[in-house]
Write a structure and sequence with these properties.
Elements (H helix, E strand, L loop, with lengths): L17 H8 L11 E5 L25 H13 L5 E5 L9 H10 L3 E6 L12 H7 L3 E5 L5 H8 L3 H14 L11 E5 L10 H16 L5 E4 L6 H9 L3 H10 L14 E4 L5 E2 L2 H5 L36 H4 L12
Parallel strand pairs: 1-2, 1-7, 2-3, 3-4, 4-5, 5-6
Antiparallel strand pairs: 7-8
């Protein structure tokens, strides 16, 4: 495994805000551009309970987007042709009863759709035909596989998760996913096993392709490296192990102003399972509403008109934002540099 960037001596000063870091770097206020991605968190129900999960998703969660809110999502998508992509996340988004309806509506409107899949959900009851459904609708799959080594996957996701994930990848490959010329995109996601920054994305992708290809015959398109966010379940783990301040120091010490231009919150609108609006999925889990100014941004899907009105608005920030700007940067699309 390509080396991650490890912890350093703790010097985290919680009096120096992320906005202070932006100003000191000359980046100024973090402002929105045109919204091109509608990211929809359809709920916290999941068949897994991973240690690094910023959603604290799991099998006992009851927060699930109802159909009338899903219908409003589709309506907003139809009213805003500048939105090119609907990004479905959770929990395990496939467990939401409206998942397939949302996919079908977005594809009918000619929009790209991403399914953020944990792979093991494909073996849940009622999911037997899900891979074929995704392929028929040309859904892009972004699949979590935190390592190509079984023991590391077990540490994050539980015993047996690696074997199921590899089996699921094989089934997707058989339908054309990750195969050259098929147009069926299959990207994998790497998260560090512990309190460290991801290694270089390009080198790690080469290692993933070599190991998964040689050992299991698995192919995929791209590897996305994503930094573990110091919120919710991962933050609790850091607190329990006495690593929170050291991890925050790691993020702050590696703040990279060059990543700010590509931050996903600048062109993404995040929708919660209950229809509330946020700058990103991380802000949603911390219940930081859309925008730094509560008087100028809508709070729910029903307060939206044209998404063009959000352009130029300031993004709501907090100390976890250092996670997206540390090192090579981190976003739902992987490293920023």
């Amino acid at each position: 495994m390509t080396a991650s960037i490890p912890l350093e001596p703790a010097i985290f000063d919680d009096r120096r805000t992320f906005d202070d870091a932006l100003r000191a770097s000359g980046a100024g206020t973090l402002q929105r551009k045109r919204v091109t991605t509608l990211q929809v968190n359809v709920g916290k129900l999941c068949n897994m309970a991973c240690h690094h999960c910023h959603v604290e998703a799991g099998p006992t969660r009851t927060e699930i987007m109802p159909r009338h809110i899903a219908a409003r999502v589709a309506e907003v998508l139809a009213q805003n042709p500048g939105v090119e992509l609907m990004d479905l996340t959770g929990g395990a988004p496939e467990l939401n009863p409206s998942f397939r309806w949302l996919v079908s509506e977005a594809r009918r409107l000619g929009r790209r759709v991403i399914d953020r899949c944990n792979l093991t959900v494909l073996f849940e009851p009622g999911m037997e035909d899900l891979p074929r459904f995704l392929a028929e609708h040309r859904v892009e799959i972004v699949a979590s596989l935190p390592c190509y080594q079984p023991e590391n996957v077990a540490k994050q996701r539980g015993k047996g998760a690696f074997d199921k994930s590899v089996e699921a990848l094989g089934a997707l490959n058989a339908l054309g996913y990750g195969q050259a010329g098929s147009g069926l995109l299959l990207d994998l996601v790497y998260n560090p096993v512990g309190a460290a920054l991801p290694p270089a994305q390009t080198a790690l992708e080469a290692a993933y392709k070599r190991e998964l290809g040689q050992l299991f015959g698995v192919t995929f398109n791209h590897l996305l490296t994503i930094t573990n966010m110091p919120i919710q379940r991962f933050a609790h783990l850091l607190d329990r192990t006495g690593q929170y301040e050291a991890y925050m120091s790691l993020l702050v010490n590696h703040f990279n102003a060059a990543t700010v231009a590509g931050l996903m919150c600048r062109s993404l609108l995040n929708v919660g399972w209950d229809g509330r609006l946020y700058d990103c999925d991380f802000n949603q889990m911390l219940e930081l509403p859309l925008g730094a100014d509560a008087t100028t941004c809508p709070r729910t899907l029903w307060g939206l008109s044209s998404l063009d009105a959000l352009e130029g608005q300031a993004v709501a920030t907090a100390e976890h934002c250092y996670g997206c700007t540390a090192g090579a940067g981190s976003s739902c699309g992987g490293a920023l540099q």
